[in-house]
Amino acid sequence: MHILQYIHWDQDPSIFGLPFRWYGLLFASSFFFGYILMKRIFFKEGVPEQWLESLTIYMALSTVIGARLGHCLFYDPGYYLSHPIEILKVWEGGLASHGAAIGIITGLLLWSRRVSKRSVLWVLDRVVIMVALSGLTIRTGNLMNSEILGKETTAPYGFVFPRADQGEAMRAKWDGEKVALTYSPTAIKQDRVFEFYRTADDTLVQRLSQQDVLIPGGKSAKAVQIVDNQPGTRGHIRYFSAEMSTKAPLVISNGDSLHLRTATFQDPFAEGKLAFGGRWEQDRVHLRFDMRGLISGAATRGTLLLRSNGDGDWQVIHRGVLGGPNTMVLDTLDFPAGITNPQYRLVVKEDETLLIARHPAQIYEAVAYTIIFVFLLWLYYRKDGKLPLGQHFGLFLVMVFLMRFLIEFGKEEQAEFLVGSPLNMGQLLSIPFVLAGLFFIVRSMRNPQFPPAMPIGADAEVASPPKSKSK
């Protein structure tokens, strides 16, 4: 598809620059609209008003606790079990809908036993209408946050998420048939020179046609504008930068070979930081990169490039994590068969950006939740609220989690330990919910049970009717 058809989604997750996020507002709105909806349903059925007030508290607590625990235990259990205090940091993000479902069911079970004294299926049949509406608002919040990303696509409605796939230093977006890049360097005293690269398949790396980019030193280093005139038509392009060294490349000859061969190592670091080199071992090149004492901190990723005889495009021969603190050593072998004078370059990617068109999975789910909400609400009023116990709940489980199972095929895996497996974590968690939903549907059809009507003038105050608009 034509590159102009991609949608560049770079919305600010904060509300008009204020220290509040759209996600938080939309999450809270799900309880607000849910309260209004449940108030109408409770009034219709003559339910005591204080039931609604306590139900709202149970729902809010069980949703947040269940969603947080679900995220921590389903998607990264190793980390959170080793750092349990991190589980409490809800404000840092991380909520799982499957965990929320378990939390809601648990909370409503407690509410039914302590407050309504009715079957938990009675309240579940009604609350699921509100939950379907909440799915719409929450997934809209995920879209505003540029999270819950879909897989790559060439479809014309694919979304590019620069806030998720691109770094703070380098950003890219389509500009007609070209790609406009903005590089915002970190201000330092001395001048710096950079080269910029692109790759569409993570195998073949091309240098951009622009000349070397000089970034003057100083406190206010200005952003650099770069244009890629020939990005191609692929939706997946990765751009990254490499700082050039002022030192001459290291050239090592192969004394063991019958034919004179040399290997050239380009140092990507500034003066006084030589850490990349190697030696010949017969027809192999032993490459070594040691950054201990040069860079401190967490693990650093890098890309090792090979170019044939000093010209043409680069090939990726190593890409990944170089190591952790105090062990940042790359020690590997290369077999440059047929290459007389191989040239190597190691790029420690401090600045990179991905220009990828993705499935807007958040919108898919938001639309599906909307359809489910409208159907459940219509069915409730169509049957005048007199559905067999558990039928509404079962329909909700089947529709929501079957939808989730299918849409997950187009989403990125969020649990790293399941990357590469045929089913992701969202799909594995959806299967038992779909089976449970089928159980409740069959049960309600084979042995239909209906809740007793709420006695008029019973032991509690009936919910106030919604205010009517003046005509």
Structure commentary:
Strand 3 and strand 4 form a beta hairpin. With 471 residues, the protein is an alpha+beta fold.
Helicity level = 25-40%
What is the average per-residue confidence, as pLDDT, rounded to a whole number? Answer: 83
Q: Report the β-strand fraction as a percent range.
A: 15-25%
Approximate shape? elongated
SS-derived structural category = alpha+beta
List the total number of helices: 9
**H/E element order:** EHHHHHEHEEEEEEEEEEEEEEEEEHHH
**Largest sheet features:** 10 strands, mixed
Which residues sit in consecutive blocks of at least 5 with pLDDT less than 50? 456-463
As a whole number of angstroms, the C-alpha radius of gyration is 29 Å
The beta-strand count equals 19
**Termini, distance in Å?**
53 Å
